[in-house]
Design goal:
single chain; eight-stranded mixed β-sheet; globular; alpha/beta; 2-enoyl-CoA Hydratase, Chain A, domain 1; 2 domains
């Protein structure tokens, strides 16, 4: 069954009518031509409603889309885009963390190292992957995998989808902040190209730890921020219910972040979001990543590092024209 968001109620009503009419026509053997005309009319109406709604989503609505349970996950991207995938586990220091997965494979024929957050889909799966919130061992595993990529000249492709790093006591005891910092540093010092995709939520240091890349691509209805809207509202106004206000003020949408040069490219989603047509969304992401890799692969290790440094130093830089006397 399709899961509808609150602002999609009008579309839900039409699509429910479509299902009922189709079932009635099949059961009663009613005139196929007239039923077909009516079904076509309703489908066109639903598509227009959906297009109108998604053309003017506010930041809070985009947050809900980014968190949709049917949105493609890391394993969906790997299954569709990466062949000969070999998962590599463990940080060689403490243990395995299923919130971040990674390994080697061939991305559209290119040998790569791919890693990313995995939220899971079923309740059991989500618990296993800790809802995509990594502990220190997850980030230390990411560093180990990036070391491997650097050693064997494998470009790195990462998929970001996390509300943030896990804030539990055990994670703090094992050095969460240091692990995030080391992972961010390793991204920045890689001598191989790195392309990051903000596929859903990009929350806090837990996101940038595997997103400090040469190219940062972001799906149209994803979000990327230093803190969740609920967390920001709790701090600013002592009221998590004001998350919508926080989402608007924080400039967390792909459109805002492209203007601020925090990201490099917006990847168009199917009408109604990536969760409605997951396979099409995954294919579009694959094409965008391949294009970014084509641009970066000819660069030498020193050029890769210089390009990445220049990219991040340009964030927040404003140029003003000299005023003549």
């Amino acid at each position: 069954m399709r899961t509808y968001l609150d602002f999609e109620k009008s579309v839900a009503e039409i699509e429910t009518k479509i299902e009922e009419l189709a079932a009635l026509a099949e059961a009663s053997g009613a005139d196929a031509i007239s039923q077909g005309v009516e079904l076509s009319r309703l489908k066109a109406k639903a598509e227009k409603q959906l297009a109108d709604i998604y053309a003017k989503l506010d930041p809070w609505q985009k947050t809900q889309v980014a968190r949709h349970q049917d949105r493609p996950r890391f394993r969906d991207y790997v299954a569709a885009l990466v062949t000969d995938f070999i998962e590599l586990s463990g940080d060689r220091k403490y243990g395995e963390d299923a919130a971040i997965l990674g390994g080697t494979g061939k991305f559209m024929g290119r040998p790569v190292l791919v890693l990313g957050h995995e939220k899971g889909r079923t309740t059991q799966d989500r618990l296993k992957h800790n809802f995509g919130m990594a502990r220190p061992e997850g980030y230390r595993k990411a560093v180990r995998l990036m070391d491997l990529a650097d050693r064997f000249s494998l470009p790195v492709v990462s998929f970001v989808d996390t509300a943030g790093a896990y804030p539990g006591i055990g994670a703090e005891e094992r050095g969460q902040a240091e692990a995030i910092a080391r992972s961010t540093e390793r991204c920045l010092t890689l001598g191989v190209p790195m392309v990051a995709v903000i596929a859903g939520e990009g929350g806090s240091g837990g996101a940038i730890a595997i997103a400090a890349a040469n190219k940062v691509l972001m799906l149209e209805h994803s979000i990327y921020s230093v803190i969740s809207p609920e967390g920001a509202a709790s701090i600013l106004w002592k009221d998590a219910a004001r998350a919508k206000d926080a989402a608007t003020a924080m400039k967390i949408t792909a459109q805002d972040l492209l203007e601020l040069k925090v990201i490099d490219q917006i990847i168009k989603e199917p009408i109604g979001g990536a969760h409605r047509e997951a396979s099409a969304a995954v294919a579009t992401v694959g094409a965008a990543v391949a294009e970014a890799l084509d641009e970066l692969l000819p660069l030498s290790p020193d050029e890769v590092r210089a390009q990445r440094r220049d990219r991040f130093m340009a964030i927040g830089r404003f140029e003003t024209e000299a005023i003549s006397a």
